[in-house]
């Protein structure tokens, strides 16, 4: 098999609260280059590790890991609506393989996914259906979280499964880096918000618009003294990228969840998708990785980065 990896940030605010045109163009160029590389690789399968932001998964039953055999995009934040072309049989085989590797994983035969999964797919492939895909959701915004070492074990099991396939596989991780958008917490939430976090599937268009308006408003003041959200932390982001590039995945096992939330923001845990993606790649042997881009972008509430990797 052949494998390539790309991990990159996503943002709900692209096109809704943009930074200056020079930065938008810079990111567009980075994404165009990444997309050209994907086109050249011509993957036969994409495995995308992604978070969910209370669109598909809620506290009525909140799993840490989910593999989907079928998935529909809810179309939030200007992403496309509709089905992904999921490689259903392979997704089921992967689930069996992971379970047989002593790692528990939930299975969905009908998962709703949000911009956290679809924005990156669209950016790197142009659509939700260009290549067969296996969506894997890793809980990144709904505490409590399992330890980072567990994410590594999960990613490694997925990687060992991919090693059994005779295919060109693109592994994606989407989310992070440091950031804290206004995603509500269930602890101490008023009833209305708690009810939404427990069972808020399929919001009305008005409720969806209100959510998006709150995020846009937060983006307008993010990084200023008016914002109550934890600011971006470029130093933390660059150290994390360096850890991945240097292949020091062992050191991630002991990442302190509370400390990361405090110094880099609560949604920084979307890096769990990057950790799983790199662990999958590392399960196939030594790799070489390259930081393609990094810039902290307040308007997008994103420590925005892109890292690529492949076997050495
Ligand atoms: O319900 C909402 O829309 C709450 C806000 C939200 O989901 C924000 C998501 C932000 C990201 O995806 C991100 O910054 O990673
Ligand atoms: Fe996100």
TrEMBL record:
Q: In this record, what's one Pfam family?
A: LigB
Q: Could you say which enzyme class this protein belongs to?
A: oxidoreductase
Q: Which InterPro entries match?
A: DHPP/DHXA_dioxygenase (IPR023789), Xdiol_dOase_suB (IPR004183)
Name the Enzyme Commission number(s) assigned to this protein.
1.13.11.16
Name of protein: 2,3-dihydroxyphenylpropionate/2,3-dihydroxicinnamic acid 1,2-dioxygenase
Family annotation (NCBIfam families): PRK13370.1-2, PRK13370.1-4
Question: What function does the entry list?
Answer: Catalyzes the non-heme iron(II)-dependent oxidative cleavage of 2,3-dihydroxyphenylpropionic acid and 2,3-dihydroxicinnamic acid into 2-hydroxy-6-ketononadienedioate and 2-hydroxy-6-ketononatrienedioate, respectively.
Which gene is the coding source of this polypeptide chain? Answer: mhpB
């Amino acid at each position: 098999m052949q494998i390539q990896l790309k991990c990159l940030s996503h943002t709900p605010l692209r096109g809704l609260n943009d930074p200056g045109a020079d930065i938008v163009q810079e990111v567009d160029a980075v994404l165009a280059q990444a997309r050209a590389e994907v086109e050249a690789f011509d993957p036969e399968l994409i495995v995308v590790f992604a978070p969910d932001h209370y669109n598909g998964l809620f506290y009525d039953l909140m799993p840490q890991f989910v593999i989907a055999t079928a998935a529909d995009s809810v179309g939030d934040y200007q992403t496309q609506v509709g089905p992904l072309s999921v490689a259903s049989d392979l997704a089921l085989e992967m689930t069996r393989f992971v379970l047989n590797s002593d790692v528990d994983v939930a299975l969905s035969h009908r998962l709703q996914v949000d911009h956290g999964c679809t924005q990156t797919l669209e950016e790197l492939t142009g659509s939700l259906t260009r290549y067969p895909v296996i969506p894997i959701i890793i809980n990144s915004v709904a505490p409590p979280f399992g330890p980072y070492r567990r994410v590594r074990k999960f990613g490694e099991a997925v990687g060992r499964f991919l090693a059994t396939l005779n295919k060109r596989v693109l592994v994606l991780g989407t989310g992070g880096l440091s950031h804290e958008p206004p995603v509500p917490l269930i602890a101490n939430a008023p009833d209305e918000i708690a009810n939404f976090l427990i069972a808020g599937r399929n919001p009305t268009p008005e409720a969806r618009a209100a959510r998006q308006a709150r995020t846009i408003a937060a983006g307008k003041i993010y990084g200023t003294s008016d914002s109550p959200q934890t600011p971006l932390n470029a130093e933390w982001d660059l150290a994390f990228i360096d850890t991945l590039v240097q292949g020091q995945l062992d050191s991630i096992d002991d990442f302190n969840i509370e400390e990361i939330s405090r110094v880099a923001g609560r949604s920084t845990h979307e890096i769990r998708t990057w950790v799983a993606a790199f662990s999958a790649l590392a399960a196939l042997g030594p790799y070489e990785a390259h930081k393609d881009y990094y810039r902290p972008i307040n308007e997008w509430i994103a420590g925005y980065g892109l890292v690529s990797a492949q076997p050495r």
